[in-house]
Amino acid sequence: MPAPEQHRLIFRHIDEPGYSADLACYLRHGGYEVLRRAVARRPEELVDEVKKSGLRGRGGAGFPCGVKWTLLDRKSGKPIYLVVNADESEPGTFKDRHIIHRDPHQLIEGIMITCFANRVERAFIYIRGEFPEGARILERAIAEARAATFAGPNILGTGYGCEIYVHRGAGAYICGEETGLIESLEGKRPYPRIKPPYFPAVLGLYQCPTIVNNVETICHVKHIADMGGDAFSKIGTPNNTGTRILCVSGHVRRPGYYEFDVGRLTLGQLLNEVCGGPLPGRKFKAVIPGGSSAKVLKFGERYKGRRKVGAELVEYDWGVEDIPMDFDSLAMVGSMGGSGGVIVMDDSVNMVEALGNINAFYAHESCGQCTPCREGSLWMQKVTARMAQGGARPEDGPLLKSIADQIAGRTICAFGEACAWPTQSFVAKFSDEFAAPARAGARPHSDAEPELV
Amino acid sequence: MSPPPAADLVTVNIDGREIAVPRGTNMIEAALRLGIDVPHYCYHPKLTVAGNCRMCLVEMGMPAVDPATKAPVIEPATGRQRINWVPRPAIACSTGAVAGLHIRTTTPLVKDCREGVMEFLLVNHPLDCPICDQAGECKLQEQATGYGRGYSRYVEQKNVKPKRTLLGPRVMLDDERCILCSRCVRFCKEIAKDDVLGFTERGSYSTLACYPGRRLENDYSLNTVDICPVGALTSTDFRFKMRVWFLRQTNSIDTGSSAGANTVVWSREGAVYRITPRQNDEVNDTWMADSGRILYKAIRAPDRLAAVRVGGADSALDFAIREAAGVLAGGGVEVVGSGRSSVEEQFLLRKLRDALGARASLVARIGGGDGLLVSADRNPNVRGALVAGLIAGLPQARLDALGARIDAGQVRAVVSVGEDLAEAGLSAAQLARVAIVYLGTHANATSAAARVAIPTLTVFEKSGTFVNQQFRIQRFAKAVPGPAGATDDLVVLARLTAAVGGPSLGGDLASAWAAMAAEVPVLAGVRYDSVPDTGLLLDGSPWAGLPFAEGPSLHYKPDQSRAPGGAKP
């Protein structure tokens, strides 16, 4: 079956020649028309549209956006805040940066619609410290939007006002965790909060009800307000609606970002057709489908089980190539859709080194608040580094698994899983490489000689 | 504290046993009521919950209800409501009691969690227990015996962090031992209100440090040492002095002010090594001021009085008592008591005063209250003097009235118990005009000028009671024997009273209490032995009108009608 065509909602204009980040260009392409229509409606209707759309968060967890908004404590009398999570730090993910750089007004329009729908009067864009240019672009765009009354006091003459502030992080992955982000925004160390009781919808920023949404999610809100929740829910597959941006990196011929209907495309189609297949002379070995914390998938594995199609349960028997790229299917095969960062590894990759690389990232980024993640992530890093440098021992594989098992599910935030899942899956699926006493610089046997392109 | 109304009680089930606790009680405390220990490091009953150590992970479940009908789901096999156990373990310290909550603390998962956390805490922890001051009272050591492997799977290099960092004048930090529980950080922020500690770096390299340019030097800094579950924070005064398992613990009271913080005095072979707070949820929680911890140094101070002296020459107690009786015979005597004496001593001094027909006064010590555990009244027992009937009104800081009477020739002799009359405002000339009988522990101008000077005991060398600002009578006990040559104040006072023709009183606590129970109205029915370790509130209403100096502090609010400028309309 040939791969479906890309369906570009968010990226519709993004690569068009001459499309720029300024307001005039955005307006020429119909910008802020949706906002204009949205502020004429009742806010509750917009929330209902988002609920009907079935939109799931694009930041990693895939939590239904409409439900998140419904959980907001609207009776407390406290202000409600919107925080846009632009702390895009998951290795393998680079979609939000592209949106911010190329189409900031789309994000701002999404923010204003979200704010109007939830009666928010203060919105914060928390952008990671490594995106200084993105922050400048956003600030410029916000100033333009304010001057044209698309933001700020009295938006489009409606009397409704909402300010957007850009807050730059200081370069910490953990600030992408929503409660860590809130702490950071409050000026503290980004130690994630314990839940319960600190659910952002009730006790978020400054202990007020707060929505934290990913950049891509917020952009989708604009398109939902545009086409209606029902129309949006018909894109993609049931429970996995809309389009999704996939960031493909690693050993494929055409890495990059692609936007497809969720679940209408298989991983095989994505890698082989859309991305042009493996590099010449190489074979795919493994793929991480949702950012580096997602569990790795090994080519050659089979995934069997029963899944719901419509009302009935049907058997499935998939290889890696057959997995539909949606939240539920990826969860069924033991991984996750995550942030949409697809990392491809071919047979030139030493999996111990690859895991060592991932572990180095998580050991460096663990905030250090709670014990299992703080100590476990660095321990795993030290073990894999030693193994990759030729000091592997037969007991290291089981040791790594045991360390990871002592982290996952026992930490304050999801970082515990994020740092444990790679190790758990790498060691389980590539046990031969973790069992073999690796020599320094040793590479696994490759069937084919690399050919020059 | 009155018990919460029954309506607020909810029944929770811990390891199959049910207990009713106030709603919201955290599960560590609830389990403790059943005698079930949930190991923890970061949780502290008097600080906010941080939930970072993950040692208290337990399994949690709620009774199952049918989502549609809300009817309980009954397990056919047992006939009881099914419990839906949450697959992920939850931290007991931030799990509040709700009706029907079930937790399990003995399952394989819980054991595995504890062992996992224990192993993680140890991988970068130095193996220096043999030279670590915390050994013997280290939570890490303790839990390692229960949940440690006994061997290490860790073959990598341990992290290197700063050693021997002086955080302030009294607290030393070893960052390698720190398990980052943040108790000290929270204490400084929440209790001492001196936010100076924080973490730098991140992940496993996280390091406890003072904020740049700041020092941990508030008067409560040593509480961080007490609550540090490991040997990261140690006291510069105590470290390397003595192994804690050699020390005997004696309950005592901080004499630094009328707050009356409950303390433990740690001693060995007649020497005191340190003083730490003792939990009293109605007085000092688990805290005490640093200033109260060094008071033991007075025991072996070089100016300690070591010999009975009469007329400037060493003498014997029997002779001194006779000599003093001679001095005091014939009227014109005044008595100066001390707010630092025990209730019993003040009662016996009152007996002496009555026998002499003398006037008695006290010396006030008023300073700034810190709103926590150092109150404005720096005497620990002025209220004791009121209760004992030694004085009727609040004392003055200076004995100017006494001085005037000396100048007027109305006073011939003065008995001073522990108070330096010169420091209280009397001139050398005034001291020279009267015959002084001095009972005290340390040398001063008064002891030097005294006709009779009798060395007595410090609070660490005797037993008795103090009445704190709440009118709470609290016991302290003898931790170490007094030095040779010193005599218990009670013995001296009883013998003096008898020698001047007063009643014959036993020079011990039992006799003093027998007499007090009979003669002191607010102590009627109270026995020394029946005063609980956390003290007993007395009826302070007879003195409600007095303008006490104390402002609000931990667990104490002055009556608004008495507060300066806060008179009721």
Give a verbal description of the structure:
The complex is a heterodimer of chains A (453) and B (569). Chain A has 453 residues and is α/β, with parallel strands linked by helices. Chain A has 3 domains: 23-234, Rossmann fold (3-Layer(aba) Sandwich); 246-346, Ubiquitin-like (UB roll); 351-435, de novo design (two linked rop proteins). In chain A, 40% of the residues lie in helices and 15% in strands. Chain A has helices spanning 23-28, 33-38, 43-53, 65-70, 95-102, 104-118, 132-147, 178-185, 200-203, 215-227, 229-234, 267-274, 327-332, 351-365, 371-391, 396-405, 415-429, 431-435, and strands at residues 81-86, 122-127, 163-168, 210-214, 236-237, 240-241, 243-250, 256-261, 284-288, 297-298, 302-309, 312-319, 341-346. In chain A, strands 8-7-13-9-10 form a 5-stranded mixed β-sheet, with no helix packed on it. A 4-stranded parallel β-sheet of chain A has the order 3-2-1-4, with helices on both faces. Residues 444-448 of chain A have low confidence and may be disordered. Chain B is an alpha+beta fold and 569 residues long. Chain B folds into 3 domains: 6-106, Roll (Ubiquitin-like (UB roll)); 128-298, Alpha-Beta Plaits; 309-543, Rossmann fold, CATH 3.40.50.740. Helices cover 21% and strands 18% of the residues of chain B. Chain B has 13 helices and 24 strands. In chain B, the strands form 6 sheets. Chain B has a 7-stranded mixed β-sheet. In chain B, strands 1, 2, 3, 4, 5 and 6 form a 6-stranded mixed β-sheet that branches. Chain B has a 3-stranded antiparallel β-sheet with strand order 7-8-11. In chain B, β17 (333-337), α7 and β18 form a beta-alpha-beta unit. In chain B, α2 crosses α3, α7 packs across α8 (382-388) and α7 crosses α13 (509-519). The longest helix of chain B is centred in the first third of the chain and has 16 residues, at 108-123. Chain B is elongated and about 90 Å long. In chain B, 49% of the residues are buried. Residues 560-569 of chain B have low confidence and may be disordered. The chains are: A alpha/beta (453), B alpha+beta (569). The A-B interface holds A 172, 189, 191, 194, 196-197, 363-372, 374-379, 382-383, 386, 399, 402, 405-407, 409-412 and B 49-55, 57, 87-89, 91, 94, 112-113, 116-117, 119-121, 123-124, 153-154, 156-157, 159, 179-180, 198-199, 201-206.
